[in-house]
Specification:
The complex is a heterotrimer of chains A (706), B (174) and C (174). By secondary structure, chain A is of the alpha+beta class. Helix content of chain A is 57%, strand content 9%. In chain A, strand 2 and strand 3 form a beta hairpin. The chains are: A alpha+beta (706), B mainly alpha (174), C alpha/beta (174).
């Protein structure tokens, strides 16, 4: 039943997308406005199909319909409801279904938003492009990634349940959907870029229309990535949050290109500059989401995220090639119309800074892409196995990151066209002092390390520069009698808030990576030990039985405060135990605890006992051997607790939230400008009583209004 | 303030020039002070932490560059998997035995292949991964310099916006 | 135009390479040890008495890294038992077990329960596994009569796979 409904829905979705694409193509080529108006109907149909298909899958999961092999493999009767629902994205086929659902949602929203302009060829071509992408993803589900495949033979009585790592933390409910919302969201600006190239209407109109869509996708992708880091910190048990894992890199690449685009697009909106570059960035961002899909789902790279082996690889790779070819072909074809009407007059100017910023982001992306695919290239060329890991990425990206922080401080105070030294000196004075004093203060406080000090100093420099802009805006808002919040929202201030979030993350990142301590303590019950300035008291270990897992959890008191319970958990019939860390988090530092070796003879919730494997047991990788427990009393035996103490980790997540807030603020319409267009006639360029005429020019309307 | 004055005193050559130089000095002085403070702080701050590397620091440094054989993507410094513990032990033994970093890495590569090292070597094919970004970076800098130099030389009305383009922008913004 | 062409060429090459890559999860048997002398395995056997790989020269030795907690090890154990039984009379091949990240007691119990009678050594600290470049159990190496490593097998082995390795090695004159 679920299978039949789901399969029909997928077929309906494919047909809606395919027929929609053909109809629009006919309408566009033969100039039939009637056909173009049908686009919104097909978009609605597509959304309906996707919702029904995803609904059928969720229904199958919740009702434990093990006749579907996807359900049998990713769900069990014991799986808690939350992880039953998240089962939709815990394996390959379901994740494609989620992708298709989100894509259909975006397409329907876009068609609805532009319904009154359906006859506009620009909208027509954009919708057509979206339909082609949708047809591809629905097509995948008709063929190699069919989520509604039924089991062969008898229906199993119980399923295997999701991968233990995917039922260990509620963040799994948020990280993948947000990430996908970000990835998929870039389809809309991409399709508008294609439409602009096809119709030849390469003015800045299409940019303005897609600005909020891009911002939305970018914000969601950012938050998704940060949540992914948080998930990996909370679940994987090694105390880290970013491993330069191929799949992490795959999500980071579109982010880098998207971020570059959000900056350089301003140079185009304002001055018509960098047109080819902006189009290329959008094409690159979208193609990199497809490349990421390939890397995750083809099994060519080994990573924590890689889905099981499948035949999807070549198909997705083909689509990636097609996207790149179409993008390049269109840009080459329209090359003559893409000549910028203006030019960058002076290097020290807003547009000059954007250019440098974009080169830095492009370099960053190049390093990440190269490092990710190079092992594959080296093996193909020489048959030589080469790893490219953290030491490489750290060495290459640190200088780029520091340079970005520097320009992040300087760029916002630069006016368009040309800046005078006088102006720079006055605007940068306070930020520069802040940076200098922070460095001096840190040195006085005994902090050592060139790169870290530089990161802190540049962080203060950039942060103060962003704060300065925000303070000026608030002051201006107050002077005009505009409520504080409405005076603060808008693109410029939102951007500055995003900058603040990035600064917070950059500082937290350098602090936590530079001043972490990692080690193990072996403690008998009741015993205390000092580790990196914290007192750890081991209170004992007990077995806990949950419906879906058995746990052996150790109670550890941190600094005479709360008790934390790192555990080793065994899910369902899995013999391998996975470590579940427990984190004592504060604004200054995190104490990250893992149960590395349970006391000898302790049993996991009354099940098989993990032996301590010659003292080598580790979370996540070491199994828990199934020897019948030699009942030595675990109460007196010592346990080995892994400890990682890192400063400022909590600020990574706070920074992520600040970026999210900034993105929302940037997407809201700027009240100031509305007022300017309203009853009160205000001068549009320089506001006389403004302390600084520049923060954001007023020539371009920010609204996406048609 | 008084420090500022005393700074200025010696460089005061004569009356008419003094006004100008005082003006520019006052403008630049804070920046000079800042640069000096920053430079001094960074020089003190980047001094090596007292003493030479201890055994455990050296082990940790080497371990960061070695891939944990049984995990995905973590270094043996970060993992407590049995193989990672074993590799750390091996590194510790060799460090205590007075072996060089390179010879320890060679030994590990001998049994696991060069893929065990997370830092790609700077020789052979792997050098590409280091060279390409460096070349791209240099090309970027040169490109920027060329672009800006050309603008400055006044490359024939760089700001000429054609009427057609203006119309396009107008139309797009409507 | 030329830029677009250049990008197209680079991306095309990338796609070509990615398209021809085998899946990483397929069992690869490459090892830098192939053709090299096998690292030493020696120590007291779990069942008592000394064991020494070098003393087993003159016949094939199947060095098998295992643990009682690893499911594929349980799968391959009967195959190894069969292989050992078939070569017992001729004594042209032996199995030598190495415990991987497991206590000697549970490993001994595991072997006894499956009817394995060959010698196995404990590997506390995992240094033998390191010398062989083992990533995780089960992993199996075939050592030729002359002491060189001729094959590395990942995952659960089958008796027929081992026979194939032996006949291929013999054909190559090992």
């Amino acid at each position: 039943m679920n299978a039949a409904i789901g399969r029909d829905a997928v077929l309906l979705g494919f047909l809606a997308a395919a027929v929609g694409a053909v109809t629009l193509a006919v309408g566009l080529v033969r100039r039939r406005p009637g056909a173009l108006r049908n686009g919104v109907v097909y978009a609605g149909l597509l959304l309906l199909a996707a919702v029904v298909a995803a609904g059928a899958m969720e229904h199958a999961l919740i009702s434990h319909d093990f006749s579907l092999s996807y359900v049998a493999q990713n769900n069990s009767r014991e799986t808690p409801l939350l992880f039953t629902v998240t089962g939709l994205w815990s394996a390959l086929e379901g994740s494609i279904l989620l992708w298709a659902l989100i894509l259909a949602g975006y397409i329907a929203a876009m068609a609805w938003r532009f319904r009154r302009r359906a006859e506009d060829p620009m909208v027509g071509w954009a919708t057509l492009t979206c339909f082609v992408v949708a047809a591809f993803f629905f097509g995948l589900m008709l063929g190699p990634a069919n989520p509604f495949r039924t089991v062969t033979g008898a229906v199993p009585l119980d399923g295997l349940g999701p991968n233990p790592l995917l039922q260990d933390h509620p963040l799994v409910a948020f990280h993948p959907p947000l990430l996908y919302l970000g990835f998929v969201g870039f389809t809309i600006p991409f399709s508008f870029a294609v439409a602009a190239l096809v119709t030849g209407r390469l003015g800045e109109g299409w940019l303005v229309e897609t600005r909020r869509w891009t911002l939305l996708a970018w914000g969601l992708l950012t938050v998704g990535i940060v949540l992914g880091a948080w998930w990996s910190y909370q679940v994987l048990g090694w105390g880290g949050f970013w491993a330069w894992d191929p799949v992490e890199n795959a999500s980071f690449l579109p982010w880098l290109c998207g971020t570059a685009y959000l900056h350089s697009v301003m140079a185009q909106e304002r001055r018509g500059l960098l047109r080819v570059w902006n189009l290329s960035l959008l094409m690159a961002t979208f193609s990199l989401t497809i490349l990421g899909t390939f890397l995750t789902r083809s099994g060519v790279l080994q990573s924590v995220h890689s889905f099981s082996q499948s035949t999807l690889g070549p198909i997705i790779l083909g689509f990636f090639g097609l996207v790149v070819a179409v993008g390049l072909g269109l840009i080459a074809w329209r090359g003559d119309r893409l000549r910028a009407p203006g030019s960058i007059d002076a290097p020290v100017s807003r547009e000059g800074a954007f250019l440098v910023n974009n080169l830095l982001f492009a370099g960053f992306a190049l390093v990440v892409l190269l490092g990710t695919v190079f092992p594959l290239l080296a093996e193909a060329v020489q048959g030589q196995q080469i790893s490219v890991g953290r030491p490489y990425f750290d060495a290459m990206t640190r200088p780029i990151g520091l340079a970005l922080l520097f320009f992040m401080a300087v760029a916002p105070v630069l006016p368009w066209r040309k800046a005078s030294g006088e102006l720079l000196r006055s605007r940068l004075q306070w930020p520069a002092w802040a940076g200098t004093l922070v460095v001096a203060g840190c040195v006085a406080a005994g902090i050592r390390g060139f790169a870290v000090l530089l990161a802190f100093g540049l962080g203060a420099f950039a942060g103060t520069s962003a704060l300065r802009q925000l303070v000026l805006s608030t002051r201006m808002a107050r002077r005009r009698g505009v409520p504080l919040w409405t005076g603060l929202v808008g693109r410029t201030n939102g951007g500055m808030v995003v900058h603040l979030g990035v600064v917070v993350i950059a500082v937290a990142l350098s602090a936590s990576l530079s001043f972490g301590h990692r080690g193990q303590v072996r403690l008998a019950p009741g015993q205390s030990k000092q580790f990196a300035g914290h007192t750890l008291t081991y209170l004992g270990t007990r077995g806990v039985v949950h419906p879906n897992r058995r746990e052996l959890e150790a109670a550890v008191r941190v600094d005479d405060g709360a008790v934390y319970r790192p555990a080793v958990s065994q899910f369902g019939s899995d013999t391998e135990g996975i470590g579940t860390p427990s984190v004592a988090s504060s604004l200054t530092n995190d104490v990250y605890l893992t149960l590395d070796a349970p006391p000898q003879g302790a049993t996991i919730g009354g099940g098989p006992a993990p032996s301590n494997m010659s003292g080598q047991s580790g979370p996540g990788t070491a199994g828990s051997p199934s020897n019948p427990a030699p009942q030595a009393s675990p109460l007196t035996q010592p346990a080995v607790i892994g400890v990682v103490v890192q400063p400022m980790v909590a600020w990574l997540w706070i920074g992520g939230a600040v970026i999210g807030l900034g993105a929302v603020m940037a997407a809201l319409p700027e009240r100031r400008r509305r007022a300017a267009g309203g009853s009160e006639p205000e001068p549009t360029i320089a506001v006389p009583d403004s302390p600084e005429p520049d923060p954001e020019p007023v020539v371009v309307r920010s609204g996406g209004g048609s | 303030m008084s420090a500022q004055d005393s700074w200025e005193q010696p460089s005061e050559p004569g009356r008419p020039a003094a006004a100008a130089s005082r003006g520019s000095a006052r403008r630049w002085l804070p920046w000079v002070v800042m640069a000096v403070v920053l430079a001094v702080a960074l020089v003190i701050g980047s001094g090596t932490r007292s003493g030479s590397e201890t055994v455990s620091q050296r082990v940790d440094r080497i371990a960061r560059d070695v891939r944990c054989p049984s995990c995905s993507g973590q270094s043996v410094a970060e993992s407590d998997a049995p193989t990672a513990v074993a590799v750390r032990q091996l590194i510790t033994d060799r460090v205590k035995g007075g072996r060089s970093d390179a010879s320890i890495e060679t030994e590990l590569a001998h049994s696991y292949g060069s893929g065990i090292l997370l830092r790609p070597p700077a020789s052979g094919v792997a050098a590409v991964v280091w060279v390409v970004p460096a070349v791209a970076g240099a090309a970027g800098v040169i490109g920027l310099v060329v672009v800006f130099r050309r603008r400055r030389l006044g490359d024939g009305g760089g700001s000429g916006v054609s009427a057609e383009d203006r119309a396009l922008v107008e139309q797009a913004l409507r | 135009m030329t830029a677009a062409l250049a990008v197209a060429v680079v991306v095309g090459a990338l796609v070509a390479v990615l398209a021809t890559r085998p899946s990483a999860s397929s069992t690869t048997t490459a090892s830098p040890l192939l053709g090299k002398p096998a690292p030493e395995v020696s120590g007291p056997a779990l069942t008592g008495g000394p064991v020494d790989l070098s003393s087993l020269r003159g016949r094939f030795v199947v060095v098998n890294f295992f643990a009682s907690w690893c499911p594929p090890c349980q799968v391959e154990e009967p195959e190894l038992v069969q292989f050992a039984f078939q070569h017992r009379a001729a004594d042209d091949a032996r199995v030598l077990g190495v415990v991987f990240a497991d206590s000697s007691a549970s490993a001994a119990r595991f072997l006894a329960s499956t009817g394995a009678v060959w010698a196995s050594v404990a590997d506390p600290g995992g240094q033998v596994a390191l010398a062989y470049g083992v990533r995780g159990p089960p992993e199996t190496f075939v050592v030729a009569p002359d002491g060189r490593v001729v094959a590395r097998l990942l995952g659960a082995v089958k008796a027929t796979d081992l026979e194939q390795v032996l006949s291929r090695a013999r054909a190559e004159g090992a």
